[in-house]
Amino acid sequence: MNIIILLTCVFAFLSTCYSQSVWNAKRSSWLSIDAKERNMIENYIDGYSTYLDKARTELTSTKELMTMLNKEGFTLFTNSSQIKTGAKLIFNNRDRALIAVTIGSEPITKGSRLIGAHHDSPRIDIKARPLYEQDGFALLQTIYYGGIKKYQWVNIPLMISGRVDTKDGKTISIEIGRNPKDPILIIPDAAPHVDSPLRKREYTGVMEGEEMDPIIGTIPDQKNSIINTVMNTLTEMYAITEEDLVSAELNITPAGSPRDIGLDRSLIGSYGQDDRACSYVAITSLMELNKTPLYTAMAYIVDNEETGNVNNTGAASSFLNTVYGIIAEAQHAQSFNENLTRKALSLAKVISADANDGISPLFPGLSEKTNASRLGFGPSIKRYGRSFDANSEFTAWIRNVLDTKSIPWQTASYKVETGGGGTIGGQMSKEDMEVIDIGIPLLSMHSPFEIASKIDIWNLNRFFTEFYMAQ
Ligand SMILES: [Zn+2]
């Protein structure tokens, strides 16, 4: 080989090394685990899958999370004498949101570690006077909840769950369609034989909002009323009347169960992973702490994120501030004043955890690939720009927590001018807390069957456990 060819080869090699970004060199997280860790992942995902199967809405999620926490020794907060170092407490907000807390050895006015996530997911809600008849069918009037692509909810098995509250103070839990032997509801589509008048509809308007009504029955009673038959069945099952449906929260969600995806079983598909993935991980990571943290560790699981954090169980409510005030007051007794609550909030380090969109193999052009996140490459630090991000010093602190334990991670930024999404982070920043948005990438977000990589959920669990203990 002559010297010129040799030099050219050396130069070509060096320039390849130089142009290779550190991000291009990152490999799938699956390459860094052994068989033992793979087993641990499957065990963790088993628990996650069981939770997802039962937790279809914020109501059933609260119930499941409370059951899990109770088993691990967390008790319902009822009075301030419970607030002692190492105490494991649950602050329940109206059975739709909760804060699970492990009291640290330092008072909350010295700092805290909080992970917030939402456990409501896009779905279809029924209206106050839902029942009507059309052409031999009884149907339900509905209004959809959160950002759904309406066409995805047509012609798939749907279940109904929620609560009905009666005038005499009873709460009745309703659930029809989750058990494979239950009947299901369905929003019927038009046949291709007759749908030519519909074919020019636009992508986002394949179904109109007022067309999202599921069938609930077809057999009339002797007065020729199908509504009567449906109501008689509901009265028999739950002892409720048609007027009781006014004081009800009934939600229509997909009826299917979580499933493994791919021959390698690397992915999990399920309704509601945005954001019951982060909710489950925030709670189980707190449950797994094997010693008392220095700073009080908290998992804040909220409702109503998908509709803008509204109402008294959403992140815009003052529930979180109240809980900080209760803890600070118990720890400072006579010297307590409201400024101590403000101080506790301002010294809190917060992860606003929420799912984010991963690169889709079918629509890669919707992502800006250099900065998009990928399934199987770890939790994502969200960098959305335009002043939505955590400040650089808190971001650096988080990087250190991740790297100290060699937890794979990546970043996520949207392609400019293609879309966006909200989280609960803004509500906590308003309280002067130090907040960073972190999530895991999903495919088919907000669809009836969202897709996550099991190893991202696992690494989120590893990260959250470290975060709660981090100093
Ligand atoms: Zn979300």
Strand order of the largest sheet: 1-2-3-13-4-14-18-16-17
Low-confidence runs: none
Instruction: Provide mean pLDDT, rounded.
Output: 95
Secondary structure tally: strands: 20
Radius of gyration: 25 Å
Q: Can you tell me the CATH class of the largest domain?
A: Alpha Beta
Q: Helix-strand pattern, N to C?
A: HHHEEEEEEEEEHEEEHEHHEEEHEHEEEH
CATH fold name of the largest domain: Aminopeptidase
Q: What form results from the Cα inertia axes?
A: globular
When the domains are counted, the total is: 2
**CATH homologous superfamily annotation of the largest domain:** Zn peptidases
Tell me the β content: 15-25%
The CATH architecture term of the largest domain is: 3-Layer(aba) Sandwich
Measured between the Cα atoms of the first and last residue, the distance is 57 Å
Query: What is the structural class?
Result: alpha/beta
Fraction of residues in helix: 25-40%
Account of the protein in words:
With 471 residues, the protein is of the alpha/beta class. It has ten helices and 20 strands. The longest helix has 20 residues. The protein folds into two domains: 292 residues, Zn peptidases (Aminopeptidase, 3-Layer(aba) Sandwich); 132 residues, Roll (Aminopeptidase i, Domain 2). Helices cover 29% and strands 23% of the residues. The strands form three sheets. A nine-stranded mixed beta sheet has the order 1-2-3-13-4-14-18-16-17, sandwiched between helices. Strands 8-7-10-5-6-9 form a six-stranded antiparallel beta sheet. A five-stranded mixed beta sheet has the order 11-12-20-19-15. Strand 5 and strand 6 form a beta hairpin. Zinc ion binds next to helix 5.
